[in-house]
Write a structure and sequence with these properties.
This protein has a four-stranded antiparallel beta sheet. It is built from three helices and four strands. The chain is α+β, with helices and mostly antiparallel strands. It is globular, with a radius of gyration of 14 Å.
Length: 101
């Protein structure tokens, strides 16, 4: 579990729908996963993965993350390869709280 002093967020990000969208995703995927691994090591990545269409094709992502502030989340997000690489075309961010079981 992330540090309880951090605000948790859910990020729902949708890839572009053009013919080059999947190619853009794969072009920067390794760099994107590096940033996620770093967040995980810092205790800021809770869970996440790809959104799939009915054929199993990746069409977006969902991530549960924790940051001290929305400003810090936005700074990280604006530098993520899926943003700088024009993979994610629509991004929704909502405050979130994990249930403790």
């Amino acid at each position: 579990m992330p540090d309880s002093s951090l605000q948790q967020y859910v990020i729902i990000a949708y890839d572009g729908t053009d013919v080059d969208a999947l190619q853009r995703r794969f072009a920067v995927r390794d760099k994107h996963l590096e940033t996620v691994r770093k967040l995980k090591a810092e205790g800021r990545f809770i869970e996440g993965g790809a959104i799939l269409d009915e054929n199993g094709k990746m069409t977006g992502s969902v991530a549960f993350v924790a940051f001290p502030s929305r400003t810090e989340l936005d700074t990280w997000l604006n530098n993520d390869p899926y943003v700088t690489g024009n993979v994610w075309q629509k991004i929704e961010i909502k405050p979130f709280r994990c249930v403790t079981l």
